[in-house]
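Handout, section B. The chain below has 340 residues.
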Amino acid sequence: RIVPVPSPTKTHFANSGTEAVETALKLAIHSTGREKFIAFFNSFHGRTLGSLSLTSSKIAQRRGFKRQALDVVHVPYPNTFRHPFTGERTDGPTASAAVLDWIENRLFKTTTPPEEVAAIVVEAVQGEGGYVPAPREFLQGLRRICDEHGILLVVDEVQSGMGRTGKMFACEHYDLKPDIITLAKGIASGVPMGACVARADLMDWKPGAHASTFGGNPVAIAAALKTIELLERELIANSASAGAYLQDGLRQLAQRHECIGDVRGLGMMIGVEFVSDRESNAPAPELRDRVEMECYRRGLIVLGAGHNTIRWSPPLVLARAHVDVALEIFDEAISAALKG
């Protein structure tokens, strides 16, 4: 009822995000008869062997696993703060065109026949990669490519779904309708649960082809139903309004601190990227780490994303009064971190 996947749909319930992604991968192979996948640099889809084949946000996640479980080709993600090929700041259409052209005119014509690709797996907002929202032109372009070549479009909304971006799903910001969507994290307010939702015609498993012992257990389902009720009643709207207020405050801080190179995001999924200076926009991971620690010392818990970004992913019950306190602490933490 609530997912942006074309109706009718079927759902496989799981226990986590990585299990939901594994389901999507098996389903893509099962329904297409193909075995290749396209994913994106700086993506995160999980740490089990199948999802790890897609993940490329940090080398620590893949080191020691010499042979990946799946045949995956990684391509750049259109980050408008850093052009995927030049590294310069750019706009959405330009970054999108560069990546889409790479897929269609490099990848498909040199190493990866499109008729062998089962699915393109993408985050509408990259999570571990630095909280980077995709340009609209990029996601719509992927939909077109998939339609032209019989490739499935899988959107991983494990981090961005369930009200996090100010809509139930990040896909809704782009009017995007994937073939398969993966969900977890906020889906049941902390109770372990994941889900893979797909077009019903795809999820035509033969008996025994796929299952999960504890997936869809009564406790998780009850928690998910109540979570959805609260999201629809007020929390999605609060995510949008309080998130906009938070992002506006962070942009004001960026005017005072030259070390903030970019503030970006949707709803309450916001990334603040730290740079050594705004002329070069060189990443400043050590400064980011110091800011994170100074925040912690002052009672504000934030977490890194990518190599030099701090992610803001607060509870969806966040009030403006909480935002004001958090921004004050963040301001103090940056000043302290700059002093070394």
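Note. The chain has a mean pLDDT of 97. Compare this with the example in section A.
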